[in-house]
Amino acid sequence: MIGARSGSPSDVMVPMVRLQQVTHVYVTDREASLAVENIDFSVATGEFVSLVGPSGCGKTTILSMIAGLLRPAAGQVLLQGRPVSGPSPEVGYMLQQDYLFPWRTIMDNALLGLELGKRVNEASRERTRLLLESMGLEGKEHLHPSQLSGGMRQRVALVRTLATNPGLLLLDEPFSALDYQTKLQLEDLIAETLRERGKTAILVTHDLAEAIAVSDRIIVLGRNPGHIRRTFDIPKSIREAQPFYARDQPGFNELFHEIWGELEASGVKE
Ligand code: ADP
Ligand code: MG
């Protein structure tokens, strides 16, 4: 179902993700700190939403609550209408670092999520092999992570995330450790792969051009504590272009400057 990409999110359909007045407090032995407060947004099935904002505004905290790794202090996180109570196979979480196990082959790294869910069988193994192939990793199955480039390792991490077939992908700065060219190629590949498969995605990035190029919508956060400042819908012409070419679309620069202004204001202590 990719309808959400071509129209506005429907009120009738249950959103893939819904945060209702979500607040999170980190409690340590010395203090309690309010990380995010009253975060409220929904992401429709098939939608690609990016979270941008200054360091410490709670982006990772929000993803971790959606992933069921952190429990909100107040408010609710709903996944397809049901409250999140822990990690779910419906959600794939991909981090900035690839976290591949160096002693495992590429294939065995890619199968890790399936293995943890006791879902490795002939069919899932074949699907994973095809995924590796579609990511340009054919013939690398028996190599080890140290034998691959950073971009290839990130692609393996993506295959591992996709192998369990989650409907929702949470991507926490997955491209930030890569060189510019690799990053552009990977943006295209990921955007294309997720679009083709009708996946829902929430991307955290500090690269605003990247957020505009790949997203349907951008949520700008501010800090102290983390809160939503403003949401920007990406115009159709930019949304529908391949990320690499989205940057050449009319209106891209104007939108960049508008969101940039909001981001600059959000970096200021409030
Ligand atoms: P971002 O990903 O946007 O940089 P985070 O979600 O990591 O922000 O952090 C939000 C706020 O919560 C920050 O003020 C950060 O210092 C604090 N924080 C994050 N993780 C912890 C933790 N494990 N314990 C205490 N405070 C934390
Ligand atoms: Mg973070």
UniProtKB/TrEMBL annotation:
Domain ABC transporter: where?
Answer: 17-248
The record's Pfam families line, in alphabetical order, gives: ABC_tran
Which UniProt key words apply to this protein? ATP-binding, Nucleotide-binding, Transport
Keyword ATP-binding (UniProt): yes
SUPFAM superfamilies xrefs: P-loop containing nucleoside triphosphate hydrolases
Concerning SMART domains, the annotation shows: AAA
Keyword Transport present in the record's keywords: the answer is yes
InterPro entries documented for this protein: AAA+_ATPase (IPR003593), ABC_transporter-like_ATP-bd (IPR003439), ABC_transporter-like_CS (IPR017871), ABC_transporter_ATP-bind (IPR050166), P-loop_NTPase (IPR027417)
The GO terms describing molecular function are: ATP binding; ATP hydrolysis activity
User: PANTHER family, alphabetically?
Assistant: ABC TRANSPORTER ATP-BINDING PROTEIN, TAURINE IMPORT ATP-BINDING PROTEIN-RELATED
Query: Which named protein is this?
Result: Spermidine/putrescine ABC transporter ATP-binding protein
* Species name: Paenibacillus kribbensis
